[in-house]
Amino acid sequence: MATVTFENIFHGDSPDIGKLRFNAAGFGWKTYASEEAPTTFSGHDVRHATWLRVARNFQLRLAMRQAEKPRITFDGFKREDHDKVKRTLDEFFNIKMETRDTSLKGWNWGKAQVQGNDITFQVQGKTAFEIPLSTVGNSNIAGKNEVALEFNPPPPFPHDPKDLSKRVPDELVEMRFYIPGKSMKSKGSDAGSDGEETDLDEDGNEVSAADAFHNMIKEKADIGAVVGDSIVVFEDILVLTPRGRFSLEFYPDSLRLLGKSTDYRVPFTSIHRIFLLPKLDDLHVQLVLGLDPPIRQGATRYPFLVAQWPKDEEVDAELNLSDEELAKYPDLQRKYEAPTFQVISRVLKALTGKKVTPPGSFRTAQGLNGLKANVKAVQGELYFLEKGLIFIAKQPILIDFSKTESISFSRVGGGIASAKTFDMRVVSKTEVADHVFTAISKEEVQPISAFLKQKNIKLLNEMEETVMDIDEPLSDEDEEMESIASEDEDSGKKSKKDKGGKKAKPSVQDDDDESDDEDFQSESSDGGSPSESDSDEDESGMASDASDPMMEELKRKQAKRAKKDSGSGSDAEKPKAKKAKKGD
Questions:
Q1: Residues 304 and 339 placed together within one structural domain of the fold
Q2: What is the pLDDT of residue 297?
Q3: In this structure, are 107 and 215 located in the same domain?
Q4: What would the DSSP string read from start to end of 19-65?
Q5: Fewest CB atoms less than 10 Å from the CB: which of 145, 255, 482, 584?
Q6: Which of the residues in the chain have pLDDT under 70?
Q7: What is the distance between the alpha carbons of residues 436 and 399, in angstroms, rounded to a whole number?
């Protein structure tokens, strides 16, 4: 038997199909789609062979003696190839092939273990599936008894929408294990396995099975492991998105966020924007990192990372770099003694090579760098930068002016709150949905308009008609009401004129009532009797005007009747009657 060939075989996780050929010296695999040289292996390096059922028919798994490639897999074998493969390995390499049964019950309750370089999930002693530890990117405690495993993003795939064989495949991004109970010590390292005594931590507390499994995955998968020592570490940093307190560890090629139960590693290549912005309280400073791809926590994606420091907080930091390494970063200093936000932003700028974007030249009516606004029910801070705007909230929004079609101002509703604020709609050239920022103070219209005009942004002001509707002329009923109220000397003193030179509608209510804003006198009530409800005031002015003299006469009669009734009562009740009459 000189050569044995198997057609339509996959190598590893590759989507390409090819042929696998064995001979006495070794074996090699070559794809059909390429003319490149085949990938070859020596037969003397094979230690063990396993035959098992997988998604792509049957798999031949070879354990190798090479440390860089401890395992090699070939998928796509047919069931009838079993005897031929077994005989080939025995004759060429003197290797006995083992057949492993796979659980096909479809149960989701079993036993999770770490075997070699894999996480295996077994049901009744049979393997249901395996996960290579090299694909695990992060492990988190998602609940009291839940461990969430996040997987590394796949490498770039040659996407061709016309070629179905080169379409972007679906990828598993997260898997959760429910592991109840306590961790027990045993001869093996399997979390949650039976043992003679309960596992305890350094403080003597019992360790849950979920915590033990989580710690074992982090240790075996080398999660968060980086090459070399950290350059500098900043402890107890408040991160608003995703919320928590983390230690920021800087490495030559990545940033690590180490929390109590979460651990994120952010490569510098995924940081594409850096913003350093003061909060509107003038007491804190925010650092915003734009990430692509975003970091994940469960099903939530975080395309932005937002950290915050007090403005006056200072830190002493010394970088763990040799003189040769420090020479590679001209903007870095060996020692820093400055505000924390300045030190961290400078280190980030030097290590990532990205520009740190400060606040733009925009100033609000109060002279601030930003203003308060809402997106739906979420309140945040809106900053106008030189090349775009950014809304900082739980999930920040970044809008580039170069991708903006137009910006329009509008006001919705007729209440006092809506008249004092306005909405700003940003229409994008690329996105289908518009971004609407609401509850912006009306006094910011002029600063925003002036700034956007400098940036050559198309502006649409839909507020003018609404503004004109506020200053309506007084109706005949209002003039009649004004003449009636002028008979009262106190009300006459309170009447005054509005900005347009017209008389504001007088109020005949008591001094305790709140006075309306001058700009909204025409929308306020007609100043009817204090006993009328708000719904009555919204009725026609004619009805309210006609009812006022009648109500006054009715009150006088009620006061006289109360005075007569009080005459037959006790002396203690007389002052009350006098007070009631005085109130009329």
A1: yes
A2: 78
A3: yes
A4: EEEE-SSEEEEEETT--SPPEEEEGGGEEEEEEEE-SSSEEEEEEES
A5: 584
A6: 1, 154-168, 184-204, 222-228, 298, 412-418, 464-551, 553, 562-584
A7: 12
Q: In whole angstroms, what is the distance from residue 180 CA to residue 426 CA?
A: 49
Total structural domains within the chain: 4
Q: CA-CA distances (angstroms) from residue 278 to 281, 366, 381, 450, 571?
A: 8, 15, 10, 22, 68
How far from 404 is each of 270, 359, 449, 478, 557, CA to CA, in Å?
24, 20, 15, 47, 69
Distance CA 86, CA 62 (A): 12
| Residues 276 and 309 grouped into a single domain | yes
Task: Tell me: do 320 and 400 sit in the same domain.
Answer: no
Please indicate, yes or no, whether the overall pTM of this predicted structure exceeds 0.70: no
* Domain assignment present for 30: yes
- Cα 549 from Cα 203, distance rounded (Å): 83
- Whole-number Å distance between alpha carbons of 422 and 439: 6
Angstrom distance (rounded) from CA 303 to CA 305: 7
CATH code of the domain covering residue 118:
2.30.29.220
- The answer to whether 526 and 497 are in contact (CB under 8 A) is no
Closest listed residue to residue 281, CA positions, set 169, 381, 146, 210: 381
- Residue 276 CA to chain centroid, in angstroms? 18
Q: What whole-number distance in Å separates Cα of residue 384 and Cα of residue 440?
A: 13
User: Are the beta carbons of 267 and 251 closer than 8 angstroms?
Assistant: no
Burial 61-95 (b: 16+ CB within 10 A, else e): bbebeeeeeebbebbbbeeebeeebbebbeebbeb
Q: Whole domain around residue 309: which residue ranges?
A: 232-352
For position 276, which CATH number holds?
A: 2.30.29.150
Residue 117's pLDDT is what? 82
403 and 436 fall within a common domain: yes
Same domain assignment for residues 392 and 335? no
Q: How far apart are CA 282 and CA 311, in angstroms?
A: 8
| 3 state SS of 208 | strand
Contact assessment for residue 198 and residue 211, using Cβ atoms and an 8 Å cutoff = no
Is 159 in contact with 153 (CB distance < 8 Å)?
no
Task: Report the distance separating Cα 553 and Cα 472, nearest Å.
Answer: 32
List pLDDT tens digits, range 175-220.
999 999 887 665 444 444 444 566 666 666 778 888 889 888 888 8
* Closest by CA position to 225, among listed 361, 134, 334: 134
Tokens standing for 418? 């809506």
> In this structure, are 239 and 339 located in the same domain?
yes
Contact 74, 29 (CB under 8 A): yes
Kindly report the CATH number assigned to the domain that includes residue 442. Answer: 2.30.29.30
Which pLDDT score is estimated for 493? 43
pLDDT of residue 301: 86
pLDDT of residue 563: 66
